[in-house]
Structures are given as structure tokens and as C-alpha cells.
Amino acid sequence: MASCCRTILTPGQFIRSGIELDDECMKSESDEITDDEFLLRRVHYTRFRTEKCPVISHSSFEPKLPGPKTRDPDVDGISLYRESCLNSPDDCLAKISDVKRSEWGVVRVPVHALKRIDLTVKPSPDDQIPGHVVIPEMSASEFENNRDFVRSSMARLAEICSQEGNVALTPPLHTSTTSKSVGS
Question: How big, in percent rounded to 5, are the helix, strand and coil portions of the chain?
Fold first, then answer.
């Protein structure tokens, strides 16, 4: 079982893995995805749990199923962004309105860790944010047809993202007294 990071960054603070990248050494979306890269996933503040381990709720990785109230179901897999294609982790929040952006944080997933739990990553270019990728094994159809595997993967991803250094951006709305435990 992965160790749990109980230290949450201060609201609005972020850390980067490795060395700081500038525009000249950032990767192109067309570059091969390598094992030493990190992927970023947006996480709603209600899914940050300081009172539990793992800190990040497994429901942060649940595929969105098609339905009348679902915008952008995860048909191809859950969405993440290649950190090496962005200037900073909060770049992956660009699609979220300014009013709601403070409700979101960002977690980091090492590509090599995905492979260890039998998940793959596939480029899925997005017009607004560079480096968009999906995890095909975590699609809506996989969730409906192979629920046990997807739920197990959700839990393992939550453990990975709760490890030291994998919370890239803590949502400003997050506090230990107001966080809710969702889907636990």
C-alpha cells in the first residue's frame, strides 16, 4: 500500500516535478509520452480529504457516464494533461470558468505508475489545452462492463496521487474544516 501524504499545500500553491520548463524546452504534444513524465488531473475541492488516507478520493477518477445531465462523458477514457506540455499545473484549469476555478485542484500521476497498474495513456488532442491525454481503460464503457477493474484502478490512482509531491495544486476553497468526503 502506498504511503499517504497528509501534508496539503497551502491554497493556490503548486509545485512542479523535475526542473522548471520554459517554452523552449517544453515537450510538443506530438512527442512520445515517456515513462518519466507526469500527467495532471483536475480534482474538485470536495474530493480533497485531509481527514482520510488517501487524501485524494478515489471518486476523482470515476469515468463520467453518458446521460442527460452529463457534459463530456468519458467515452475515450478519463482526461489528464501532460505536465511537460504546460507552463504550470494550473494551465489545465483553463476550460473552467473564472468563477468556478477556485473550486479545483490538480494532482500529478507518474506515467510509470500507470503502467505498473496495467493502465495506458493515449494522446487525445484538445484545441484549448495542449497535452490532453486519456486512459482508455478508464472509459465509461469500461466502467459499465468491467466495474471491478475500474474501481480497483480508481483506488490505486487515489493512493498514487496522495503520495508526497503528487498534489500539484490545492484548490483555494479547500480547508480541512469544510472539505467533504465524496464517494468514499
Answer: 25, 15, 55
